[in-house]
Amino acid sequence: MHTSVDIEALNQQIYIESAFVEKLNAETSKVIVGQDHMIERLLLGLLTKGHILLEGLPGLAKTLAIKTLASAIDADFSRIQFTPDLLPADIIGTMIYNPNKNEFNVRKGPVFANFVLADEINRAPAKVQSALLEAMQERQVTIGNDTFNLEEPFLVLATQNPIDQEGTYPLPEAQVDRFMLKVLVNYPNKEEEREIIRRNLQAGGFPKVQQVVSIETILKAREVVKKVYMDEKIEQYILDIVFATRTPEEYGLAKLKPLINFGGSPRASINIALAAKAHAFLQRRGFVIPEDVRSICHDVLRHRIGLTYEAEAENISQVDIINDILNSVEVP
Questions:
Q1: In this model, does residue 38 exceed pLDDT 90?
Q2: Which domains can be identified in the chain, with CATH numbers?
Q3: Which helix (H) or strand (E) covers residue 227, if one does?
Q4: What is the pLDDT of residues 319-329, one digit of tens each?
Q5: Residue % of the chain over a pLDDT of 70
Q6: Which listed residue, 8, 132, 181, 236, has the most CB atoms within 10 A of its CB?
Q7: How far apart are CA 18 and CA 277, in angstroms?
Q8: What's the confidence (pLDDT) of residue 172?
Q9: pLDDT at 167
Q10: Does residue 73 carry a pLDDT above 80?
Q11: How confident is the model over 258-304, as pLDDT tens digits?
């Protein structure tokens, strides 16, 4: 069991190691107004090697946020616009014949970057989606007979538009499960939108984002995040939440049984634990508290709970189910 001295020292170390978070936030807020939740979630993904699915209407600064973050850590950024005629080779690359040398050379695709923005991922057919998802899962790409490892940090941020269902290919459940978080991006409030208008109309355009953190700092921070202390009671709390999505009747939630088609997989438990540790790190704390778990639960579980027709008929969403679970499972 950890002693209190241990926790004290760990707290100190993490307070020092997480100092760069403030610099990053200050730099991104030069360009991005509001959307703190989205920026925080992008940092969570960055610190835990987790890919993120962003769902929101067009014009909510999803692309701008990712680009800004990439500039602030001087990472390679590439954007792929998914369309119905896209081919897997357009993402991972292909073999090009060189007639002078009479040989094939590899031309790498846009997936070879630190930040890959897959814009409107649900517009491309399944084989293109699966080419990207293989890169996400294996962190490597095979072109011809050669296999290339992707450089760390490697983070895929996919966006999908919730309103356009014409000509889209919804991501299959197994593929959606590869995303650590599914983040909903909402409209700014009036004050924020006023500031957005002013910044867009100011002379000289947006301020230029400077590099304030190195890639090495991010990779080192990932190791530190793993050290964040998680008590057994918190582990038990995470397990109770995930198991309540599978067997709600055991947690006094029998009414949810007919509404849930399938619950969270073990990936859900792993990702809640990882994200909770990273959340504690962003709060500059060396240990996880129940509030860390509760604050990231919706984003980790939202896309991992399957609803039955009955739930859809009654207009009950995953958010309602997660709220019920969080209100019923005992907090340590």
A1: no
A2: 4-217 (3.40.50.300), 229-328 (1.10.8.80)
A3: helix 215-227
A4: 999 998 899 88
A5: 96
A6: 132
A7: 13
A8: 73
A9: 60
A10: yes
A11: 989 988 889 999 999 999 999 999 988 888 999 999 999 999 999 99
Here the tokens at position 313 are: 């008929």
Alpha-carbon distance of 290 to 127, in angstroms, equals 40
Bridge-based pairing of strands 52-55 and 181-184 is: parallel
Point out which residues pair with 94 in neighbouring strands.
107
Neighbours of 255 (CB within 10 A): 10
Look up residue 46 and give its amino acid.
Answer: L
d(CA 109, CA 324): 44
Q: Please check whether residue 132 is in contact with residue 121, taking contact to mean a CB–CB distance below 8 angstroms.
A: yes
* Residue 321 neighbours by CB under 8 Å, 6+ apart: 245, 256, 259, 260, 305, 307, 311
Q: Are the beta carbons of 277 and 289 closer than 8 angstroms? A: no
CA–CA dist 167, 320 (Å, integer): 29
> If you ran DSSP here, which 8-state letter would residue 1 be given?
-
Helix (H) or strand (E) holding 238: helix 232-246
Instruction: Give the C-alpha separation, 231 to 125, whole Å.
Output: 43
Report residue 100: phi and psi, to 5°. -65, -45
